[in-house]
Amino acid sequence: MLLHLRAQHRSIEKGIKDIDTYLGKTTEGHVKLDANGRARIQYGSIGIHVVVLPDHNLVIFKAFINLLPDPESGTILPLYYHLLDMSDEPQTGMAYFAIVAAEEIDMERDVISVETKRPIVDISLDEFKLSVSAVGEVANAWIEKLADEFDAPPVP
């Protein structure tokens, strides 16, 4: 069993190096993972955070798109239902919507994010690019719609 854990650890380390290489390839060498296993890349007008979690064998692709509306607006509950429905729609593909607590990202209000998660081990360049585009496309498509329909301002 110990050999299995060592092999898995080596596979995760290789996957992290691969992700760092993919970041360099997709940003012409401008972006690398920081010491905490995080990076931010631009996709159109959206910033996508790449977060490597080796203890869980996960890489998360996440874009913060909108602030939650003012609670007094009465649109929070309809917004929640809408995000749940949209997370299960074929048009969002691999991406899904989530609510991120303000404390987690040092903001004054909770935010809506578009995310996808993949295993670190054996992630390919194509899968990396597909994850980035899935999050980027959904985020770009919905940021203005959520602002207009639910009074959820875009994240500055």
Structural write-up:
It is a single chain. This protein has 156 residues and is of the alpha+beta class. The chain has one domain: Yope Regulator, Chain: A (2-Layer Sandwich). 43% of the residues lie in helices and 24% in strands. The chain has helices at residues 2-26, 76-87, 102-105, 125-150, and strands at 38-43, 46-53, 58-67, 96-100, 111-119. The mean pLDDT is 93.
Indicate the topology:
Layout: H1 2-26, E1 38-43, E2 46-53, E3 58-67, H2 76-87, E4 96-100, H3 102-105, E5 111-119, H4 125-150
Antiparallel strand pairs: 1-2, 2-3, 3-5, 4-5
Short description, anyone?
The chain is α+β, with helices and mostly antiparallel strands and 156 residues long. The chain has helices at 2-26, 76-87, 102-105, 125-150, and strands at 38-43, 46-53, 58-67, 96-100, 111-119. The protein has one domain (2-150): Yope Regulator, Chain: A, CATH 3.30.1460.10.
